[in-house]
Specification:
Chain lengths: 567, 320
Amino acid sequence: MNARRHVFTTLAMPIALALVFSACTGSSGRKGEGASGGPIKEGGILRIGTSSGMSSPNPFVGFNQDDYSTWMYIYPSLLQYDTTTPTYDYIGGFAQDWSQSSDGLTVTFHTTPGAKWSDGQPLTADDAAWTFNMIKQYASGPAGAWAGSVTFLKSIQATDADTLVATYDRPSGTALFDLGLTPILPPQVWQKYATGDGKALKTFQNVPENGQPLVGGGPFVMTEYRKNDIALFQRNPNWYGTKPHIEGFGLQFFRDEDAMITALKTGQLDAINEIPPTSVETLKSAGMHVYEGQALALRDFIFNLDPNKTQHRELLNPKVREAMEYAIDRDSIAQTAWLEYASPGSTIIPAGNATGGVQWHDPNVQPLPFDIDKANQILDALGYQRGSDGTRMADGQPMAYDVVFPQDEEGAGDRAFQIIQQDFKQIGVELTQKRLDDNAAWNAMYCGGKCGYNFDLAMWDWFPAADPDFILSVLTCNEYGNWNDTGYCNPAYDRLYEEQKSAVDPQERQKIVFQMQEMAYNDRPYIILTYDKRLDAWSPDWDGFVESVQGIYNNFSTQSLTSVHQA
Amino acid sequence: MGRTDYLIKRAVFAVATVFVAITINFFLFRVLPGDAVRNLARVPHATSALRHSLEVQFGLDKPKWEQYLIYLKELAHGNMGVSFTDQQPVWSNLREDLANTIPMVSLGTVFAIVIGIITGVLSAWRRGTRLDQVSTNLAIAFYSFPTQWLALVLLIYLAAWFPAHGRADPFLINPTWWEHQKDVLVHMFLPSLTLALTLYGEYTLIVRSAMLETLGEDYILTARAKGLPQRRIVTRHAMRNAMLPTTTLIALSLGYIVAGAILIETVFSWPGIGNAVYQAVTERDYPMLQGAFLVLTISVVFFNFLADLLYFKLDPRINE
């Protein structure tokens, strides 16, 4: 689902000048050690290819993964995740230290003293307070994209230039994530747009103009942006954190993955943020370095569980869904459809999803084994007899279903569908692929108002946020017609959702999150098919990337591009 | 019917065509399943208030007929609206996309026209020879190759020498005007070549057919009987008369330049209008779609009108 991908999932002088600058200062740069143990080679411009691309550099308009990653690199955020640790512990960003009161109602951040924006203006806790108050003010309108970062926030203010205090209406278990990972905007730029109905917040382009870079406070500043083409960045001389080794980087937006792979092989690119499984061997044989790791992404088989549905109500029977899970060969999907670059899935939180020192995936939930005989036994016991063509009949209707299949899932998803289709034939269930573009697919699943959810089955994906709150929320009743794509509504699940949201102790929250995963697994609004593997590639001329479940260019931290250097 | 009457009639017809196209474009995209607000309102914990505010902002809360009237009124004032996706004026977006597309597609189209006419004339002139067979078969082959396949083949084999992405090298250091133009031309090479190869075959076949028809006319036989040189017969007598169907085809091709070339722009990541239209369709960005199709309609109608005018010059019988 495109929108799913989008939600969580690129200076005054041009880059050219950066190169000149690099040539002048290269010898006096920061010293470190390269992979070979020698000194790190400073300077250079890194060229990254990406097929996601930016939709807009304006944080109130953009919705692609590359937009979020770009804001991480050009704007300060209070916190970051340490993506070098498996549990993604929080580390300081603009905030040097932080604390949450034991009742969970107050969070205090101590920000970096003496920090500056790229234009030389002081960067203080006041700027952070201004950003969050502005988001709060326009949360139901132009700042809606960031409304989640101010949930339950009662007030936020700078008690002095370096201290930010947030108070909540109720204890918040997600406060660090909500406030910590939100970009802080320069009031000297944005204040004039945050007036009246705030509409100007969205119409402001926020692109470099007249040779001037965007004012920012991250390790890089954006120097050039061309829609659907490129975004260029140069080192921010006023950055308060660890100075990057590279002088700058460029994002090149590719519409065609084959062209992007060819560009890396022919030296027109230095790195690619996410490559398709089919290109791994090609790139390896061309001498490129290919990273394989766990991704924060899952593929799901979706049931319409809307209790008011009129067609194929047999799918509301948990035993039918259990039988169907027995008939899904996850290993075969992972090996054949995904060429082994995926692992069998179980719960709605992908394996490896951790934040703040806590693993959120429940390893105790094990998926049912592939067992066609068991599936047939269950369906036989339910009395669904096969017709003359081998398709079972349920309540007088053949068990033949359309599977809504969005454009997002093309490729490996097609092969996964074919595997499921063949196996379901063996249990007397007929599946038909209904291919649609993403927008039309959602429309085919949810038709709004009294019409509600009007599909049988679907296949799609989730690219959740680092914090599990979002992926857990998609199964709540509150998300009906919005992120809820199953029609599933379970008050007990909703209660747990609210509890985890207010659980300030991470261990306590983990327990609740595990409970929710188990509940969702047993109720089966989804059968989680596979968890993706993360595949990135780069030229052997570069080294030092810090990988993450979101790849080398991500919105979890600035570690990757501040560490990368020429080999 | 006099020339003036004819022109007035054609002009009125052109204006009516544009108006009908505007109306169809407006309703066509709204018939598509899906809606623009869905994409933009699906942010974590979005409230119904946010969805409603987006609908109000885009005017989608009003009945369709009212939206249509507002659209016509704004269009009459030269306002094509604001893109739902990036919130920028549609014309500003289109201008940028067109500035990228027109040079690349024009180069490919002109190249196709020139090569197509030359090979078509040569094939007809040397009918039945090996030259004719090779030329005609090549034309049929390139005409039938799927565009994206040809683009990928060229990219895979030529990317070592020509850029695979975009319209210019963003990392070129302080280029002079000439260096920049050279860089743009080098970037344009593969997409323009792909376009030229996919288009030229059609010209070859049509020009060859028109030439063969003309070369069979009595006046050509007369010219031959008078002992005129073959080259003169082809260029002076046959080609001029064979240009009528070719003119229509050229007018259509030129009219479609502003439509870009979606598949080629996709393979070469060319930031043009074809790419923009594709994105606008997937995101249900109605104002962008309406704007792009309006520009396309006006362009096609204009070049057809131009072809009508050219007919006066090419075919004196219209005046009779």
